[in-house]
Design goal:
MetI-like fold
Length: about 260
């Protein structure tokens, strides 16, 4: 790199830094945010956490009901993910350049994936609330639609990246379309697809907590209920259970990934 290129890169970096600083300052000005005041309140915030966010014996009496809500959230997340995975598999087959049999169908599959995954799950929940109201169906559909979009896109990429040797060999022998998909595509792509499904289960359990705040279901409903009652001890218990659940599921899915990949 010569001196002129070095200076040019240096000026670009400096310009980018100044732009970021300017945007930050403008955002703070428009929102009336005071950086100094914000930093000085941190010690008081930590003291409040120490004084209020602890679990009592009375809080543990509510544990059975909270666990029921948590189980509802886990089961809804798993159900939405597995059913969405089936739909996404067929859309992935239709949308992949390797296995697509119709350009119109391929375009439709990619369009569904693009729309479904680019709208956040929380936004889907808000949209569906207008039609279905506050119930578990709304939460399930919000998770289902978002998962279909993400898994369809992932499955399309997995199929496109698979080797074509087995696919071309079976096609040359006169095998039918479904035979080629079942014997050539599935064996190569199934481990990666299962890995993506496990990842989405983890993600949906986190998302289901936020969706539950809107739909009045699952552990999100319990969190919202006790938070509005200013029962911070129970909120702490719920938060800890969510963290433990997510960590346990992540550890389990990681072990499964090591076995199948």
């Amino acid at each position: 790199m010569n001196e002129q290129q070095f200076k040019r890169r240096k000026w670009k970096s400096l310009t980018f830094f100044l732009v970021i600083v300017g945007i930050t300052w403008l955002s703070a000005h428009l929102t009336a945010f005071n950086f100094i005041e914000g930093f000085t309140t941190i010690p008081a915030a930590f003291m409040w956490i120490i004084e209020n966010l602890w679990i009592t014996t009375e809080t543990l009496d509510r544990l059975p009901g909270i666990l029921d809500r948590l189980l509802e959230t886990i089961l809804m997340s798993i159900a939405a993910t597995t059913i969405a995975a089936v739909v996404a598999f067929f859309l992935g087959i239709a949308g992949s350049n390797t296995t697509s049999s119709n350009s119109l169908l391929s375009g439709f599959a990619r369009f569904v994936a693009s729309v479904a995954r680019n709208i956040p799950v929380v936004a889907w929940a808000l949209i569906l609330l207008l039609s279905f109201g506050q119930n578990s169906i709304t939460g399930f559909l919000a998770l289902f639609i978002g998962t279909v979009g993400l898994l369809t896109r992932a499955f399309i990429e997995v199929i496109d990246e698979a080797g074509l040797s087995a696919y071309e060999a079976l096609t040359a022998t006169g095998a039918t379309y479904f035979q080629v998909v079942g014997k050539a595509v599935m064996p190569q792509t199934l481990p990666q697809m299962v890995s993506w499904i496990l990842f989405m289960i983890e993600t949906n359990i986190r998302s289901a907590t936020l969706v539950g705040l809107l739909t009045g279901t699952g552990i999100g409903y319990s969190f919202d209920l006790y938070y509005k009652m200013l029962d911070y001890q129970t909120v702490t218990l719920i938060t800890m259970l969510i963290i433990i659940t997510v960590i346990c599921i992540e550890l389990t899915s990681n072990k499964v990934r090591k076995v199948i990949l």
